Amino acid sequence: NMSGFSTSLVLNELWMLKPEKVYTEYASDKLSNQKSLYIPANIGRTESGQKEMLKILKDNNLNSVVIDMKDDYGLLRYDTRDPLVQEKGYVSAYAVDLDKFIERFKAEDVYLIARIVVFKDKHLSQYANSKYAIWDYSEKKQWVGIKRYTEVLDENGDHIDSTPEYYDEHWVDPYCEDVWAYNVAIAKELISRGFDEIQFDYIRFPTDGLNLSNVKYTWRDSGMEKEGALMSFLAYARENIDAPIGIDIYGANGWYRSGSRTGQDVEMLANYVDVICPMFYPNHFENNFLAYPPEVERPYRIYFYGCYRNSVIARNKVLIRPWLQAFYLAVSYDKKYYNEDYVLRQVYGTRDSIDNGYMYWNNSGRYADISPDPGETPYPWSNVEASTKYRKPALQGPKTTQE
Question: Which residues lie closer than 8 Å to 262 by C-beta, 6 or more apart?
Fold first, then answer.
């Protein structure tokens, strides 16, 4: 009777009666309308870099930035004042003058998101004789993933040995409560100093390495699995951080209900965060994925369907704000189609699906390929999914509902 449908509705689908409502306590128009630019810390620390990024924001109708505060090597990119963080962290020589940065961007009414790389952390993995590192039980040392083996030949060309080539990644144990406390202390300090939102990246387990079977998690409690480790960390973070918390996830984990390899089970993690940021980069999917004619519309489709799927998997408990691909990779699809329109199609796909904002990613801070946000401008190309003749996905909010 409540649903108005002729057939029954199971209890765990009652949230679909109000599909436009995001259930996180921090849900607001402000949270759902952030259109962001990733700023590498080496650019964000300089006067010229800040000026350049502010101009890009203004020219493209963007209103927020994501900047590294703990980078991919675990280096702190700000001048910490917290005793715990000072003890275990290392402030990069190329750190941002945080107070000046926040003052300048706040003066321009820019929403500030602090990116914290969590479990990939070279510095912390070497702290106190690697007590927090993921361990290699076979080699009896800190585990680092092996990318490939290079054959060593003698002067006659005969094989005598193989030399491993390692990934440039060092990991700390996601089961370790000391690691949780360290990262949450960083987050709390950044909020206290003026950031609006925390974004945890590498909130997952390692996935790459021919020696992955050698991994040993020395801090793991009996019976705890990968999903449980991430849930426990985020539950702890939620208890201690009074601000919106976001997490970056693989695009595949936002597309499919799967998390066993990485621990990124969206359906479970959605209970502890406010924003989920899937990386639906088209060049990270198989080149023929959703590449039916017209092939050029593939970026739109990936974001149109991906954002919707991620929202459904998360039961709309969180806001889905995807990363957009603003960079080129030498894969066959990008070689054929990558340009400004390729990037813009992602914006339209996100807008027409759930319209909760987005973030541009370019690791080098090069944004020559982005265009001004289109707002409510009609889709400029021919695409069945974008046609206003058909209903849009059910999670769409009232401001974009079309028949």
Answer: 204, 205, 207, 226, 250, 253
Please tell me the total number of residues recorded for the chain in this structure. Answer: 403
Query: What's the farthest any 2 CA atoms get from each other in the chain?
Result: 83
Q: What angle do CA 145, 284, 110 make, to 5 degrees?
A: 100
Quote the pLDDT of residue 395.
66
Report d(CA 69, CA 198) in Å as an integer. Answer: 10
C-alpha pair distances (Å), 245 with each of 114, 168, 195, 239: 10, 27, 11, 11
CA distances from 223 to 42, 227, 259, 331 (A): 42, 11, 17, 41
Token couple for 350: 């996100």
Low-confidence ranges of the chain (pLDDT < 70): 1-3, 259-260, 391, 394-403
**Residues 385-399 pLDDT 10s:** 898 877 677 665 444
* Span 173-195, pLDDT tens digits: 999 999 999 999 999 999 999 99
d(CA 56, CA 275) in angstroms, rounded, equals 24
